[in-house]
Amino acid sequence: MEGSRRLRGHSIGVFSEGIGLVLFRWSTLLTAVENEWGGHESRVKADQLASDILSWFTQSKEPLYIDDLEDILDQGMLSLNVEVEDGSIEEVAEKLMVMYEEFLEDNFSSFENFRKANLEHAARPPVPQIVNDDEDDTDEDVGNDENMIVDDNSSNMNPETSTSVANTNSVNRSVNGPLPKVSGEADDGWVVVSNRRNKGRKN
C-alpha cells in the first residue's frame, strides 16, 4: 500500500467509528474486557487498542502492511493478558484493511454492513443462557470450569458469542492468573478457550 494514500478530513472520524464496529464484533476481545482479564482498566486498554489502530492507519509514514497491523492487535490482546491462537487476529486485521482500502475509494459498504449488523444485534432480545441441570457432575463435564467453549460458526466475530462465554464459570479466575489461550483446534466448528494450566492435563 502506498504511503501517500491516506484518509482525509471527515473520513478519519467515520473510519474511527468503523474500527470500533469491527472490534465490537470480536468476541475474544469482548470476553477479555467483560471479565477484566487485563485488570480493572481492561476497557481503557481496549479503547487504547482502537486508538493505536487509528493512529497506525492515519499517521504512519511508512507503507501499511497487514503483518504490522496483526502485531498491533496481538500486542493489544497481550495487554489484556490473552494469547490468541484461533486465527481471529488475522481475520480482524483483514476486515480493517479491506475497510480502509474502501474508504480510500469513498466506498463505505463494509462500514455500513458492520453498522447495520451491530444495530440489528442491539435490537435483539438477550440470548437465554443454557444451564446444566446436573450441577454435581462438574468434574466430568466437558468444558466445565476450566475451559470456555466459543461457537466459531461466525469466525469468532459475532458479538453474541461473548454473552454466553461471559456467563460461564471458567471466567471466575484471578486477574493475575495464567494467560488464557484461544485455540482453534476443534474440528466441529467450536473454538476451545483454555488457561495455560490445562496444557499439562491435556497432554
TrEMBL record:
Keywords per UniProt: rRNA processing
Superkingdom assignment: Eukaryota
GO biological processes: rRNA processing
Biased composition (Acidic residues): 132-144
Keyword field contains Cell division: no
Pfam families the UniProt entry points to: WGG
Record-linked InterPro entries: Pre-rRNA_process_TSR2
Region entry Disordered, spans: 125-203
Polar residues bias locations: 152-175
Keyword rRNA processing listed: yes
Family recorded in the similarity comment: Belongs to the TSR2 family.
PANTHER family to which the protein is assigned, alphabetical: PRE-RRNA-PROCESSING PROTEIN TSR2 HOMOLOG
Protein known as: Pre-rRNA-processing protein TSR2 homolog
Native species: Glycine max (Soybean)
